[in-house]
User: Which sequence fits this backbone?
């Protein structure tokens, strides 16, 4: 299996690259992921699609190091050599309790600061958080409670959080679920802006195929193995896609 | 302690003229902020039912301690509650039943075992009333010192671990993706609750102790907009209700624990009515 990135970007030597090679994950006796091979380069947006239970979340957990696996996941920065992989992770959103008295400022403090969040934040900390929120044009949300944010707002806040400290790769788990059509466009435009500005690669899982062509560089269709990968058009028109989502009775649209 | 007694006498307040009231006042001043702090995370972590169950297991511990003729059965209670906490986490991780079901299983078993042991051989249950109802007036200077040490330990824990505890409670996946060892912090906090609930049980009373663990933060959540306000209102609310409860119980001759719990209920009602559209 030839990793798709080789063909299109002239090899991994010059660009920074996340390599997933022969990744296999087992749970009990079942094989969840079977010899998955993927290369992701900086500046790319890659969408991971597949029916429910196809192993998308498992792959993300393996990359995050929360799951044991066989095979290798390695990262090479631009110009070759070995580099430390920093991952920014945006979890699937709607799991904050609406009543939690945790402000956006508190959330950043809890994640990035030593100073306990129940003390008044220093001016420098506040400035820092404001500059993080500026990356997603959401400075106004700093004193709002996370439970009171709309789906789109929460998504942007979690995105800003994932960008601090600046990662090499940004992983978003179903960022478009719970976001309306308008919010979807806003979020995708923002991701596009971020990958250009910070030159990082973005991996996202999604069930929304309508936006793939407009925003995404690469699509990977996963069900235990990589069934198809390539440009959005290539994958959406492939037999494997038709099988996985129409005849296979999967959970997609 | 002599400084404290001198201060109390200097106030010339009627209810502070007796030594045991002076002790009780100091105990309340130390104990209620302790509950106020822990309460914030019990409620955020949705552990209110769990802390209730820990109190029940503490009762079993006391029954076993009395059976074994221990001089301080309270240590048996602490030990058993900690064991209970570990056992619960273990069973929880091995089954797909929901947490409240598992807690129900543990809680009822603990109470049954406690009553079984306490009444074995036709034993009288009345000696256990002290733990069910609680008696803050029986607190000794040594026990107050112990409470102060626990408060200090919790404050130190909070300064180092509050951020990680909050993150673990509000969003476990986010916490672990940012390198927080969530299981370790959960266990640490659970042990903390186990120790405090069982230690305070003989002063506040098993029947109402959970109100101190839940109501301060539950009330505070009604109005707090961030973690700073959340902690502040919870601690102040617990302290004021504690003092109010002690004074009321002195004049009406009722149980202090119950009076404190009722004040906390009023606190909750007031904040509930005050809650506005928060930012």
Assistant:
């Amino acid at each position: 299996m030839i990793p798709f990135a080789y063909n299109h970007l002239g090899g991994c030597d010059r660009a920074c690259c996340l390599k997933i090679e022969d990744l296999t994950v087992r749970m009990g006796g079942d094989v969840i992921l079977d010899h998955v091979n993927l290369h992701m380069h900086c500046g790319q947006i890659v969408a991971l699609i597949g029916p429910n239970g196809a192993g998308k979340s498992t792959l993300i957990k393996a990359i995050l190091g929360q799951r044991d696996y066989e095979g290798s996941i390695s990262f090479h920065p631009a110009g070759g050599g070995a580099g430390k992989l920093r991952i920014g992770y945006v979890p699937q959103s709607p799991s904050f309790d609406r009543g939690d008295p945790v402000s956006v400022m508190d959330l950043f403090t809890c994640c990035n600061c030593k100073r306990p969040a129940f003390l008044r934040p220093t001016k420098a900390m506040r400035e820092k958080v404001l500059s993080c929120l500026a990356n997603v044009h959401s400075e106004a949300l700093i004193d709002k409670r996370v439970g009171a944010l709309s789906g789109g707002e929460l998504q942007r806040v979690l995105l800003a959080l994932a960008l601090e400290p600046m990662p090499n790769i940004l992983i978003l788990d179903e960022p478009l679920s719970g976001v309306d059509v308008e919010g979807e466009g806003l979020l995708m435009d923002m991701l596009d802006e971020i990958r250009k500005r910070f030159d990082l690669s973005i991996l996202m899982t999604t069930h929304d195929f309508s936006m793939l062509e407009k925003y995404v560089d690469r699509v990977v269709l996963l069900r235990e193995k990589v069934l198809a990968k390539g440009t959005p058009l290539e994958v959406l028109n492939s037999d494997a896609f038709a099988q996985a989502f129409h005849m296979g009775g999967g959970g997609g649209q | 302690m002599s400084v404290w007694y001198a201060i109390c006498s200097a106030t010339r307040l009627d209810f502070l003229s007796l030594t045991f009231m002076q002790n009780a006042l100091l105990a309340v001043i130390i104990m209620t902020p302790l509950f106020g702090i822990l309460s914030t995370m019990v409620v955020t972590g949705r552990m209110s039912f769990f802390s209730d169950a820990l109190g029940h297991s503490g009762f079993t511990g006391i029954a076993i301690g009395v059976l074994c003729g221990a001089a301080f059965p309270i240590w048996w209670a602490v030990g058993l509650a900690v064991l209970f906490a570990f056992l619960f986490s273990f069973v929880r991780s091995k089954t797909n039943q929901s947490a409240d079901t598992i807690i129900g299983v543990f809680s009822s078993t603990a109470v049954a075992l406690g009553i079984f042991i306490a009444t074995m051989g036709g034993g009288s249950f009345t000696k256990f009333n002290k733990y069910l109802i609680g008696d803050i007036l029986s607190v000794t200077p040594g026990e107050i010192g112990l409470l102060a040490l626990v408060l200090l330990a919790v404050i130190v824990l909070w300064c180092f671990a509050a951020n990680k505890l909050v993150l673990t409670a509000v969003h476990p996946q986010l916490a672990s993706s940012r390198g927080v060892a969530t299981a370790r912090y959960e266990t640490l906090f659970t042990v903390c609750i186990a120790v405090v609930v069982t230690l305070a049980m003989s002063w506040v009373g098993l029947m109402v102790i959970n109100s101190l663990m839940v109501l301060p933060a539950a009330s505070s959540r009604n109005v707090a907009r961030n973690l700073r306000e959340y902690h502040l209102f919870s601690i102040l609310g617990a302290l004021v209700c504690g003092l109010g409860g002690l004074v009321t119980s002195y004049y009406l001759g009722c149980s202090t624990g119950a009076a404190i719990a009722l004040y906390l209920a009023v606190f909750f009602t007031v904040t509930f009515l005050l809650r506005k559209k928060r930012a």
About this structure: Chain A has two domains: 1-86+168-253, 99-165. The interface with chain B takes residues 64, 66, 87, 89, 91, 95-97, 99-103, 105-107, 109-111, 113-114, 116-120, 143-146, 148, 158, 161 of chain A (CB under 8 Å).
